[in-house]
């Protein structure tokens, strides 16, 4: 029987992550029993102590055991905990030695959404890939530059260290683990029973690019503002470097350091964000939107749009535009 330990952290936890993980493995046991098969999972809620954690002044979650009482486990699930992340990490630091000890003993570890911050704080992600909620990427990269963040991904699997993308994407990681521990048929059964879409690989269609401006490089900030204010113009890196009197190579280096994007990537993301908003809210066709954001090459526009969103412009419009849905 596989021992599942779901953490009960301190802070503003996403209760759906705790309940969802508990429900998935417990319901699987129920499915197995109904098929005349033995249960496969022992599911426990594990806290730093045995004391209940109160969330949002309304819900209390009582751990089944404290970390001192769990001598061995097979999978540790770290739910999403919101708030000021340095404080969240500080409040939950007593989990980290236990998590590392269990990992050395062979336990796998999975973070759900921004639970990735707690997973990264253990040191287990150093040099490894990790995903998190797309809105938390800038904060994550500042705190954990040694981790290879792939925030467009729904799931990462680094030899038994797992992470999931944002919000309800945690269900996709749980289904991935269920399939790994049982079978494809069981994962499909659970997905159908709870009406969860399987095999989602990217959270790109949901990402809203807001620009990375929480840095102190003023010329780069001004370059960002110029790009964002001139979406319909064709802007080259040479033009930007010249406009702000910085050598091109130095400009590119400073821009990348400040924003985690090259100037070309930043220009593309700003233009595609404007295109997305137009496709969501206007009746313009794809070519009109393309011209509005400074593209004249249909193939180039579609290629960049799909690279950033994971969808073609038409598919994106059909998904998010009410008028398109009525057609």
Write a concise synopsis of the structure shown:
The protein is of the alpha/beta class and 327 residues long. It has helices at 15-34, 85-91, 95-104, 116-121, 137-143, 170-181, 184-193, 218-229, 237-243, 248-259, 263-281, 286-292, 298-309, 313-320, 322-326, and strands spanning 2-7, 12-13, 41-47, 53-55, 59-61, 65-66, 75-78, 81-82, 108-111, 129-130, 148-149, 155-157, 161-164.
Question: Can you tell me about this structure?
Answer:
The chain has helices spanning 15-34, 85-91, 95-104, 116-121, 137-143, 170-181, 184-193, 218-229, 237-243, 248-259, 263-281, 286-292, 298-309, 313-320, 322-326, and strands at 2-7, 12-13, 41-47, 53-55, 59-61, 65-66, 75-78, 81-82, 108-111, 129-130, 148-149, 155-157, 161-164. By secondary structure, it is an alpha/beta fold. It has 2 domains: 2-206, Class I glutamine amidotransferase (GATase) domain (Rossmann fold, 3-Layer(aba) Sandwich), CATH 3.40.50.880; 218-326, Orthogonal Bundle (Arc Repressor Mutant, subunit A). The strands form 4 sheets. Strands 6-3-1-7-9-13-12 form a 7-stranded mixed β-sheet, sandwiched between helices. Helix 5 (137-143) links the parallel strand 10 (129-130) and strand 11. Helix 1 (15-34) runs parallel beside helix 6 (170-181) and helix 6 (170-181) runs antiparallel to helix 7. The model has no long low-confidence stretch (mean pLDDT 91).
Number of helices: 15
CATH class of the largest domain: Alpha Beta
User: Distance between termini?
Assistant: 52 Å
Question: Please, what is the CATH homologous superfamily of the largest domain?
Answer: Class I glutamine amidotransferase (GATase) domain
Tally the structural domains: 2
Q: Major sheet: size, sense and barrel closure?
A: 7 strands, mixed
Extended strand count: 13
Q: What Rg do the Cα atoms give?
A: 23 Å
* CATH architecture type of the largest domain: 3-Layer(aba) Sandwich
Which shape, going by the Cα principal axes? globular
- CATH fold-level name of the largest domain: Rossmann fold
Spatial arrangement of strands, main beta sheet: 6-3-1-7-9-13-12
Uncertain regions spanning at least 5 consecutive residues: none
Helix/strand class: alpha/beta
Helix content: 40-55%
Our estimate of the beta-strand percent is 5-15%
């Amino acid at each position: 029987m596989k021992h599942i330990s779901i953490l009960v952290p301190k802070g503003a936890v996403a209760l759906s992550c705790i309940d969802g993980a508990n429900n998935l493995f417990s319901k699987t046991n129920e499915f197995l029993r109904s098929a005349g098969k033995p249960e496969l999972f022992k599911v426990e809620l594990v806290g730093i102590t045995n004391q209940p954690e109160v969330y949002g002044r309304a819900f209390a979650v009582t751990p089944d055991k404290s970390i001192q009482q769990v001598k061995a486990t097979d999978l540790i699930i770290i739910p999403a905990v919101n708030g000021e992340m340095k404080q969240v990490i500080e409040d939950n630091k007593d989990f980290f030695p236990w998590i590392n000890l269990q990992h050395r003993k062979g336990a796998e570890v999975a973070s759900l959404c921004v639970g990735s911050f707690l997973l990264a704080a253990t040191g287990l992600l150093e040099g490894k890939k990790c995903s998190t909620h797309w809105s938390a990427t800038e904060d994550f990269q500042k705190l954990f530059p040694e981790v290879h963040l792939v925030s467009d991904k729904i799931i990462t699997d680094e030899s038994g260290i797992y992470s999931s993308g944002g919000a309800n994407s945690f269900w996709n990681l749980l289904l991935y683990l269920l399939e790994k521990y049982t079978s494809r048929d069981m994962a499909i059964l659970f997905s159908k029973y709870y009406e969860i879409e399987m095999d989602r690989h990217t959270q790109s269609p949901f990402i809203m690019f807001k620009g990375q401006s929480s840095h102190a490089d003023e010329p780069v900030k001004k370059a960002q503002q110029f790009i964002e204010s001139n979406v319909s113009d064709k802007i080259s890196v040479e033009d930007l470097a010249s406009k702000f009197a910085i050598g091109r190579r130095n400009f590119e280096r400073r821009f990348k350091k400040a924003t985690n994007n090259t100037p070309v990537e930043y220009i593309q993301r700003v233009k595609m964000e404007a295109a997305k908003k137009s496709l969501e809210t206007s009746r313009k066709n794809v070519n009109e939107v393309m011209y509005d954001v400074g593209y004249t090459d249909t193939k180039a526009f579609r290629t960049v749009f799909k690279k950033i969103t994971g969808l073609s412009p038409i598919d994106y419009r059909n998904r998010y535009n009410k008028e398109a849905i009525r057609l």
